[in-house]
Each structure stands twice: as structure tokens, then as C-alpha cells.
Amino acid sequence: MREAYRRLLVPNNVGWDPDSYERYFGTAFGATIRRREEKLVFEALGNFMGPSALILEVGSGTGNYTFPVARRCTRLVAADSSPEMLRYLKDFVVREGLSNVEFREGRLPDEIGTGPEEKFDGVLTVGTLNYVEDVGAAIRSLASVLRPDGWIVFTVPLSSIEGRIYALTELVNRRAIQLHSPEDAATLAGNAGLRVVKISSAGFSRFGLTLVVGAVASGHAS
User: What integer pLDDT is reported at residue 16 of this predicted model?
Assistant: First the structure.
């Protein structure tokens, strides 16, 4: 039964329309959620990121975080599993005149195109782990590309009322997501050799929809 159900699901790297995606975040509901999430993500980045940083962004989508982050670091590698999203982002980057963004197509946890010698100062992934079947393996994969003093900012959907509603709507779209408590998120980070600095929740209501996690590699100085 479970295998039959899984065959009904849409592969996570297809079916993403950039224009529809942006239209959703142009609604009052979507804009509110994005604005509250952005506040926490940028607060976390402000604690870690310096102007000389080399950043890996996994799940860059339409570039909501790509552009402000690229303008604040030396180089940003933008990875996404959706060819449609990458085409949209490449066109956007050209129009914006950014020269420090590199593009890669690939899926977590093993296909993000990083070699064994390539290490990053930081990793950013917002909204992407929602659709990864093995979240623990994905976070370990991301942690493996960090330098000893590196950091990661990631989000996962929260096991709250809002999170459950979100999970149901995604089932209608034939996509399955996993919900997490703050304790779950901290455990996943710890199992990847990361030390959590802060976990916050953002959403439309006080219950929250998304957990924003900021963590550092085990070799990071206190």
C-alpha cells in the first residue's frame, strides 16, 4: 500500500512553475508568511555571514534569498533540482547584473554537485527540506560540505496546526512532507555534527508554520 501511494506522488524535481510560485507569494497570505520567514532567516544569516563568505544555497527557487545573499558575499553557488526554476533564476541573475552566482542542478542528499575538496563557509536551504524523504541524510550531506568553522541555516515545516494544514494541502498537490518539532530539528542537526545556535518559528498565526534553524559545524569556535 505504501509503495502504491509513493508511486502517486510527483517527483520533487518536476512540476514547479516559477510564475505560479511567485503568484502565491504575491497573495496576502503568502506575502505574510514569506515576510515573517525572511525576518528570521536574515537574522540568522546576520549572525554568521561575512562579506568574504563562499555560500551554497540549496533550493534557490526563484531567487528570493539568492539576490540579497549574493550581494553580501564573495560567491554564491545556487543549486536547485528543478530545471524550470534554474532557468528562471539564471535569467533573473543576468537582468540583475550579478557576476558572483554559479548555478548547479541536482537533488539532495547526493546530487548537489560538490566535490570532496569543495568546502563552503555557509549553507542556506529554505523550503527545500520540506520535500526530502530522508531529512537526516540531507542535513548530513549539507554539513559534510562545510568548512570546520562553517554554519548552516535551514528550514523545516513545523508540527503545528498550520503545519498539518500545509501537509494536507501538499497531499492534494501529490507531494508528501514531514513535519518536525523543535526537538526533532535539533536532533537532526546534532546527528549531522552540528551545534544548534537558535531555533525560531514563523507563520501566519502564533502557532507557526516553519522552523528556522541556525547551526554551526562542530569545529566552529564558540
Answer: 79
How far apart, in whole angstroms, are the C-alpha atoms of residue 149 and residue 48?
Answer: 10
Residue type (1 letter), 217 = A
Count of helix runs (H) and strand runs (E) in the chain:
8, 7
CA gyration radius for the chain?
17
Q: Hey, what amino acid is at 201?
A: S
Q: Which residues does residue 43 pair with via DSSP β-bridges, in sequence order?
A: none
| CA distance linking residue 188 with residue 184, whole number of Å | 6
Chain centre distance of CA 138: 11
* pLDDT confidence of residue 1: 46
Pairwise CA distance, residues 77 & 93, whole Å? 12
pLDDT of residue 222: 57
Q: What is the pLDDT of residues 144-174, one digit of tens each?
A: 999 999 999 999 999 999 999 999 998 878 8
Angle at 159 between CA 158 and CA 161, to 5 degrees: 100
Cβ–Cβ under 8 Å, residues 55 and 49: yes
Residue in the structure block whose three cell numbers are 540568522: 44
The residues of the chain scoring below 70 in pLDDT are: 1-15, 108-116, 220-222
Q: In sequence order, what DSSP letters do the residues of 131-147 get, joined into one string?
A: G-S-HHHHHHHHHTTEE
Angle at CA 44, nearest 5°, toward 22 and 91? 30
Closest CA to 203 of 170, 158, 173, 151: 158
